[in-house]
Design a protein that fits this description.
Length: 110
């Protein structure tokens, strides 16, 4: 699966868990998505080995679960430095085996 979803209105969505689970070919730009209402991003891109989409502008301030969000996203190296993760309580495995990820998350309030 590697379709263009940039026009989707996801602003009312709260649970995005496993949305792209194991979509090994998925690598689309989702920068236009308004996920401000999302509380559960668990395993959203789990196993998306090709994914390196732009999610830098996402407002994830409502998210409480980031558990395994980018698990095994070996190509992902997105800029997440501006993410507000202060409401998140679950980070386990968020970047597990993200061998390309070298993002600066030092400013995150965890």
């Amino acid at each position: 699966f590697n379709e263009d979803l940039s026009e989707w209105d996801v602003s009312n969505g709260t649970n995005f868990s496993c949305m792209f689970y194991d979509c090994t070919s998925f690598n689309r730009d989702l920068s236009s998505w308004n996920v401000w209402n999302a509380t559960d991003l668990q395993s959203m891109f789990n196993g998306c080995t090709s994914f390196n989409g732009n999610v830098s502008s996402w407002n994830v301030s409502s998210a409480t679960t980031l558990f395994c969000m980018f698990y095994e996203c070996i190509s992902f190296n997105g800029d997440l430095s501006c993410w507000n993760v202060s409401n998140a309580t679950e980070f386990f495995g968020m970047f597990w085996q993200c061998t390309s990820f070298n993002g600066d998350v030092s400013s995150w309030d965890v």
